[in-house]
Amino acid sequence: MYYVYSHNDLDGVGCGIIAKIAFGEQVDVRYNSVTSLDIQVERFLGNVENRRKTQEGLFITDLSVHQDNEKRLNDYAESGGKIKLIDHHKTAMHFNQYPWGIVKVEYEDGRLASATSLFYEYLIENGLLTKTKALDQFVELVRKYDTWEWERTEDLQAKRLNDLFFMVSIDEFEEKMIRRLKENEQFSFNEFEEKILDMEEEKIERYIRRKRREIVQTFINGHCVGIVYADNYHSEVGNELGKDNPHLDYIAILNPGGKKVSLRTIHDQIDVSEIAATFGGGGHAKASGCPLTNEVFKLYVSEPFQLEPVRADAFKNIYNLKASDSGSLYVNREEDRFYLFPCEDGWNIQLNGVTHPETFASFEEAEYFIKRHYAAWLVRDETFIQFLMKQVKEISHPKG
């Protein structure tokens, strides 16, 4: 008998699906949250003698255990127990020190790995699963979504697979995928799924538009952070809000119901897995999470609670445009006015009529500065026109 303890997201469930195709009735698959895995492992190891006698194989995929269970699993393996921990998170790399650990973040060709792709390759290499075109396609879609490669390659099928995963129960998704992968030569969505996925796209877009109006900005441990409450679509929300606000180091997505925080970044120089690790979490460099502990609650909920949401830039302007030769006008909630205008050496900023001493090499650098330090936003045309009229009036009729 085989046991597979995996994560409860698409990548983790992908591991369970290929395990059931490989082992059929001879596998028991359990899906876990990050915090519940250790409880599951402790139950498995509860009767070590019986486990040794039956030589049951245990696969832990897309998750890793805490330090105490790490030692217990190694003791179990050294006493003859069959274990494989297969993961792709940077925070799990230390498990490679054990013969039973297989952790790889990136392939030799530069592609990022997923737990499903690593488990699939392991099963094929060890003669436990027969490779098929449909399985290849399914595993690649899971890998592309989990590593966010789908956005760079514009492979919307990977995103739609994840959308479908969240639209049905795990049991229903499992059943659909197993039957499809066994019966079909190629992987695809059926006509009904395509229709409901189109509707889901529209729903996600509406959800993100609402979250754009709710994000607050603050500094936490030296990082400029955008904080938003969301119980759905964490990856989509984090990615879109990050692109909307590149001056933010990362986006923290709070899910009080699930008592967890998801961290997302679009920046290569920011590693949110390191930030999550300081709070007992982990994950990828650009997508991680941690439990909503008392410390995290204080930093991300109670202290920023009084902050007003950041206003979005005006987007229907004709005159007050970003990087305009005639300058660009921004304001913040304190009613400070920031006029960004080109100069001989780059871009200058006027703050309430006083020119900032620093000259910025590009408009983007100047905008980054005022958004990061003053939470400013691009104003509408009518406010910009009034500002210019006042400037002209002061030039034509100087005081004194």
From TrEMBL:
Gene3D superfamilies for the chain: 3.10.310.30
A Pfam family reported for this protein in Swiss-Prot or TrEMBL: NrnB_C
Domain Oligoribonuclease NrnB C-terminal per the UniProt entry, residue ranges: 327-394
InterPro entries associated with the record: DHH_sf, NrnB_C, Nucleotide_metab_enz
SUPFAM superfamilies in UniProt: DHH phosphoesterases
PANTHER family from the UniProt entry: 3',5'-CYCLIC-NUCLEOTIDE PHOSPHODIESTERASE, OLIGORIBONUCLEASE NRNB
Name of protein: Oligoribonuclease
Source organism: Bacillus changyiensis
